[in-house]
Amino acid sequence: QEQLVESGGGLVQAGASLRLSCAASGRTFRTSGMGWFRQTPGKEREFVAFISCNGGSTSYADSVKGRFTISRDNAKNTQYLQMYSLKPEDTAVYYCAARGTYYCSGSSLAPDFSSWGQGTQVTVAT
């Protein structure tokens, strides 16, 4: 399993941008589809975005489509979530997730991801 560490969260004003990073420590990063999820207290973990192993395919939740961009750099074992035009409703703990070795196809379901980071808080103030 990959060890995943998120960074880049923080407190921003509505309309601002933020970029999250997720560094993977394993040797199988490039063979695993990667995703971002988010969670607020009392709610289930929510899918945000997915990127395939080679970065050629991406998918997004409707709520972030057009505002967020997922990307990855396999040479650096890192994936990113660039967030633009942030809204207060984007406030959540954001989690990086890996589908697992040779699972490159897309999924929006949390149980399909085998490794998770510890999460990074994003707070968007009005």
Explained architecture:
By secondary structure, the chain is mainly beta. Helix content is 0%, strand content 45%. Strands 2, 4, 5, 6, 9, 10 and 11 form a 7-stranded mixed sheet that branches. Strands 1-3-8-7 form a 4-stranded antiparallel sheet, with no helix packed on it. The relative contact order is 0.32.
Largest sheet, strands/sense/barrel: 7 strands, mixed
The stretches of 5 or more residues where confidence is low (pLDDT under 50) are none
Strand content: over 45%
Helix content: under 10%
Content-based structural category: mainly beta
How many beta-strand runs?
Answer: 11
Shape: globular
Number of helices: 0
Distance N terminus to C terminus?
Answer: 39 Å
Write down the Rg: 13 Å
Mean pLDDT: 96
Order of helices and strands: EEEEEEEEEEE
